[in-house]
Inverse folding.
C-alpha cells in the first residue's frame, strides 16, 4: 500500500511540473514582450510575438519531459 502511495505522489508531482512548466514559459514570454513593447513603443507586436514564443517553449518543455520520463 505504501509503495502505491509513493508512485501516486511521483505521478502527481510529474503532472504538476508539466503544468508549471507550461505556465511559466508562457508568462516569461509575455513579460519579455510587454517589456520590449514599452521600451520600443511597438505595442502590441512584440507582446504577441513573444507570447507565441513562450507558448511554443512551454510545449517543447512538455515534449522533453514526456520524452525523458515516458508516458
Amino acid at each position: 500500500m505504501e509503495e502505491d502511495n509513493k508512485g501516486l505522489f511521483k505521478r502527481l508531482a510529474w503532472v504538476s511540473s508539466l503544468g508549471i512548466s507550461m505556465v511559466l514559459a508562457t508568462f516569461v514570454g509575455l513579460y519579455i514582450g510587454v517589456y520590449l513593447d514599452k521600451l520600443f513603443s511597438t505595442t502590441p507586436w512584440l507582446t504577441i510575438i513573444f507570447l507565441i514564443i513562450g507558448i511554443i517553449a512551454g510545449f517543447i518543455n512538455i515534449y522533453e519531459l514526456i520524452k525523458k520520463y515516458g508516458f
